[in-house]
Amino acid sequence: MRGLRILVVDDEQDYCNVMKVILNAKGHQTALCTSGADALSLLSKNTYDLVITDLIMPEMDGNQLLHEIKNRYPDTEVMMMTAYGTIENAVGAMREGAYSYVTKGGNPEELVREIEKLQSMLELKRENELLKEKVAHVDVMLDSKSPGFLEMLSIAKKAAASDTNVLILGESGVGKEVIAQYIHRNSLRKNKQFMDLNCHAIAETVLESELFGHEKGSFTGALHRRIGRIEAADQGTLFLDEIGDIPLTMQAKLLKTIENKKIYRMGSNEELEVDFRLVTATNKNLEIEMEEGRFREDFFYRISTIVINIPPLRKRQEDIPLLIDYFFKRSQNEMKKPIHRIDPDVMDFLKNYHYPGNVRELKNIIERLVVLSEDGVVQKEALPTFSQRSKPENQASIQDERGLKEIRRETEKNHIESVLRRHNNNMTKAAEVLGITRRQLFNKISEYNLEK
Ligand SMILES: Nc1ncnc2c1ncn2[C@@H]1O[C@H](COP(=O)(O)OP(=O)(O)OP(=O)(O)O)[C@@H](O)[C@H]1O
User: Which residue of 68, 174, 187, 232 is surrounded by the most CB atoms within 10 Å?
Assistant: First the structure.
C-alpha cells in the first residue's frame, strides 16, 4: 500500500519527533508542527492525506483545527490524539468529521492499525473512482482481421507488460489514445490512475502548470494550489498526446523529470517523488522535427524506448465492416434509436470511403446517420454532403492536385449547402449558424449556384 502524507500537530515537540519515527518506519511521509496556526499554514502549501492532531493545545485546540480543516480541505482526514480521561471529547470530534481517535501515550500499535484502516479505505475510494472512469473509457473495439493492426496490438501488449516508455505514432483519429489506454489497462499499473494531457496549442506557462502543478500565488491568477498531471499520475500512467507540439524548454524539463522521477510544483521548493509510466503520442514526423531543431534528440530517445505505429484506416480495409457494425450498435444504444434498415448505398459508401479522418471520421459519420435516421431507417440523404458527391472511385484525395483556393471554395459551398438543408432552407437561421448576414448568404447562394 502507498504510504500516506501525514501532518502531526502537537505542542510537545518531543512527542512529535517520536511520532515521526514511528510513522516513517511504516513508509509514510511525515511533517511536524506544534500549533494549529502552523498546521493551517502548512496545509495551505502542501497536500496531506491525514492530519493527526492533539486535542488539547493552547490557542487553537484540536477541535477548532478539525473544524477549519473540514471547511477548507474536506478530502484531508483528521485523527485526534487524546489523553486518558478525555475520550468523550474525542468521540464528539468524530461527530464533527474526524476519522477516528487514538489514546495519547498508548500502544503505538493502536495508532498504526488505525492508519492502516484509513489507508485501505483511501485505496478503496481511489479504486472506486478509477473504476468509474474505466467504465466510461472501456468501450472500444479492438477486434481486427488486419495483419498490420494485429501486429501493432501484440507489440502494445508486450509493451504494456514492461514498464518502459512508449511512443505511439499515427495519423489523427487512428486511435492513439485508445491504444494508450489499452497499454494502461494491460499493465501492472491498471488499478492506478491514467492521467492524460493533450499538449497541443497550450501556452507554455499553462502547460507547465498542467504538468507540474503550482502553489497558490506562484503566478498571477494562481488563486489555489493545483496538483499537476505528473503528480496525479503517481503509480499510474501519464499519457501526453501531441508530444510533438511541446516547446523545447518544456522538453528539457520533462526529460529531467523522466530521468530523476522528481518534480517541484511551480512556486514550491518541496521535492516530490513521482513514479509513473510515460506514454506519448504524436501525428508529427519527429525525425523532421528533430532535423529542423524543434524536437530534442535526447528527449526523443528517452520517450521512444518502444515505438508503436498505428496504421491508418485505409490500410486496414478489412476492419471497416467490423467497425461499421460496432459503431452502429454503439450509437443505437447510446441514442436509444433502434435501426432496422440501412440504405444499401449508405453501406456501399461506408465500406469504400477512404476516411482521411480515420476511425474518428467513421465514428462521426455513423453517429450522424443514427441521429438523422427516421423510423429506424438510415437514408442515403443523411450522408454528409462531401460523401454524396464523391463516388468511392474518385475519392483518392490524397493525390488531389487542386489549389487551396479551389478546395476552400468547395468546402465553403458544401458547408453552406448542408447548413441550409439542416435548417430547411431557413435563411435567417442558416445565416446565424454560419456567422454571416442574410444578404451575404444570398450572395453566396447565387455565387455557388445553390438551389434554395
Ligand atoms: N478501436 C476503437 N474502438 C472504438 N473507438 C475508437 C477506436 N479507435 C478510435 N476510436 C474513436 O475514434 C476517436 C479518435 O480516437 P483517438 O482520440 O484515440 O485518436 P488519436 O489518434 O489519438 O487522434 P488525435 O491524433 O486527433 O488525438 C475517439 O472518439 C475514439 O473513441
Answer: 174
* CB distance 262 to 158 below 8 Å: no
Task: Give, for ligand 1, the residue of 177, 202, 313, 367 to mutate: max count of ligand atoms closer than 8 Å to Cβ.
Answer: 177
Residue 439 confidence (pLDDT) above 70: yes
- Rounded CA-CA distance 230/250 in Å is 13
Has the ipTM of the complex gone over 0.85? yes
pLDDT tens, residue by residue, 274-299: 999 999 999 999 999 999 999 999 99
Instruction: Write out pLDDT tens, residues 42-70.
Output: 998 888 999 999 988 888 989 999 999 99
Domain covering 401-452, topology: Arc Repressor Mutant, subunit A (1.10.10)
Atom of ligand 1 nearest to the CA of 179: 18
Residue 242 has pLDDT above 80, yes or no: yes
What b-and-e string marks burial along 50-66, b requiring 16 or more CB atoms within 10 Å of the CB? bbbbbbebeebebbebb
Options 3.40.640.10, 3.40.50.2300, 3.40.50.1390, 3.40.50.300; CATH for 5-129 is 3.40.50.2300
- Cα gap 16→259, rounded to integer Å: 35
CA of 172 to the centre of ligand 1 (A): 8
Q: What is the pTM assigned to this prediction?
A: 0.64
Packing angle, helices 358-372 and 344-352, rounded to 10: 170
How far away, in angstroms, is 357 Cα from ligand 1 center?
Answer: 10
Nearest-CA residue for atom 7 of ligand 1 = 175
CATH class of this structure's domain 313-400 = mainly alpha
Residues of the chain within CATH 1.10.8.60 domain(s) are: 313-400
Stretch 289-313: mean pLDDT, rounded? 95
Query: Is 175 a pocket residue for ligand 1 (Cβ < 6 Å)?
Result: yes
DSSP labels, 291-339: HTTSS-HHHHHHHTSEEEEPPPGGG-GGGHHHHHHHHHHHHHHHHT---
Pocket mutation for ligand 1, best pick of 359, 361, 362, 365 (most atoms within 8 Å of C-beta): 359
- pLDDT confidence band for 350 (50 / 70 / 90): very high
The residue assigned the cell 472506486 is 128
- For residue 123, give every residue at least 6 positions away whose Cβ sits within 8 Å of its Cβ, in sequence order, or none: 1, 2
The CB of 322 under 6 Å from ligand 1? The reply is: no
CATH T-level assignment (fold) for domain 145-311 = Rossmann fold (3.40.50)
